[in-house]
Structures are given as C-alpha cells and as structure tokens.
Amino acid sequence: MFSEQETYFFHGLDDVIRAVTTLGLCRYRYEDIAREEKILRHRPLRNHSNFPYAFGYGWNMNNDQIVPYLLVRYAPKGTLRQYLKSMLSPISRRDLQILAGDVAPALSALHKCGIAHGDIKLDNVLVIHS
Questions:
Q1: Coil, helix or strand for 14?
Q2: Is 109 exposed, middle or buried (0-12, 13-18, 19+ CB in 10 A)?
Q3: What is the crossing angle of helices 27-40 and 13-23, to 10°?
Q4: Any idea where the Protein kinase domain is (predicted)?
Q5: DSSP-derived pairing of the beta strands 54-62 and 65-72
Q6: C-beta of residue 123 within 8 angstroms of C-beta of residue 82
Q7: How many other β-carbons are positioned within 10 Å of the β-carbon of residue 114?
Q8: How high is the pLDDT of residue 14?
Q9: Of 21-25, 58-62, 76-80, where does mean pLDDT reach its minimum?
Q10: Are 60 and 10 a contacting pair, CB within 8 Å?
C-alpha cells in the first residue's frame, strides 16, 4: 500500500493511525506530532495573533527515515535566527523590544492553558511580519 518513494499527507486521525501502523512508526513519534498539533489547534491558542495555527500534519520519507511535520502558516522571513542573520546591521534595542513583545504574549497564552513550552530558542520562533 505504501512505498518509500512516495510522500503522504494525512489530515484525519483515522488516516494517521493507519499510516502509523502501516509504516511501523514508533508510538513516541506519533504522540509527539499529535501533541503539537493538538496544542496548536487548542481553542484559546488557534486564534491568537502571535501563535501559529496548525493546518495539518503528516510524514515525509527522507532517505530511509520517516520525518514528521506540521503544516503552519508560511513565515517569509523564516525563523528568528534566520531573520537576525539576514539583517545587514545590528538590530536596534527598539526592534528587540518589539520582537520580545511579540513572543511574550504567545508564551503567556501557552502558560494560561497550563502548557510549558520547554524549548524556547531562536529556531522555534517564526517571523511573519516586519
């Protein structure tokens, strides 16, 4: 039913469970991706202006490895790390305050839902607007 050369996109829980069984994914990976998707679609978070919405999730084949992914809004400026590296001059204190002011409400929204992020870093922050 599944070949290693094809890419699959799953949007329904039933399809994901069948894929996990068929592709032999370990339970750990499925639980990770399902938890992330559940958090991103949680009602208090899904409409938050500083929080990404999950459109879906699935798995791709990369050589012989199955790699899970989440589909979120496109971030034209990339991650915060990529954005900072692309700047031609050092970032101003005011711009740093703006960036922190955008990240803090998203983190606060997580905490209000009883969720601890646990991996806050430049690579986990998407830059959408200038």
A1: helix
A2: middle
A3: 160
A4: 1-130
A5: antiparallel
A6: no
A7: 6
A8: 44
A9: 21-25
A10: no
Which pair of structure tokens corresponds to residue 51? 């929080």
- How far apart are the C-alpha atoms of 87 and 9, rounded to whole Å? 35
| Cα distances (Å, whole numbers) of residue 86 to 74, 80, 81 | 17, 10, 9
Does the pLDDT at position 89 exceed 50?
yes
Handedness of CA 48, 52, 53, 54 (dihedral sign): negative
The pLDDT of residue 85 is 93
Structural tokens at position 61: 């084949």
Average pLDDT, the chain: 75
CA distance 28 to 32: 6
Name the E strands within the chain: 8-10, 54-62, 65-72
Backbone angles phi, psi at 52, to 5 degrees: -70, 145
- Sequence ranges of the domains in the chain: 1-73, 74-130
pLDDT in tens, 17-30: 444 444 455 555 67
